[in-house]
Amino acid sequence: MITMVPPYLAEPGREFYFLGPCEECEGCRFNKICLSLEEGSRYRVTGLRPQNHPCAAFEGECVTVAEVEKVPTPAAIPKRSAIEGSVITYHEVECFNAGCPNYKRCKPIGKAEGMKNRIVTLGKKIECPMGLDLVEAELF
Question: How far apart, in Å, are the Cα atoms of 14 and each of 3, 47, 62?
């Protein structure tokens, strides 16, 4: 896939979440390239092209044309719905303990209540301080 990335992401191996367009994207002649990504998904830069273009979303700073691949998002899901390869409706884990080592998995960036996601891989059982029965998962 081809998109454009700001200077701080213009390096193979860098990862980012595409959270959707911003106001400045509306009138841009390149917005079809940038907005071809799936909202809420995580991507990895796999290559760079020599083209750069000024971008209003980054205050006129140049963005670089980049090759990217979609990568799974780490998450915590209830064990009862954990079947590798299945499609689930994502439900956010109700947790308010930001100090918990699992918090980022329980509140993954880009995943919203009601989103459909495919479970790519399953990991180990999560030791939840609240006693919830959760497992590690990689979601697309």
Answer: 14, 10, 17
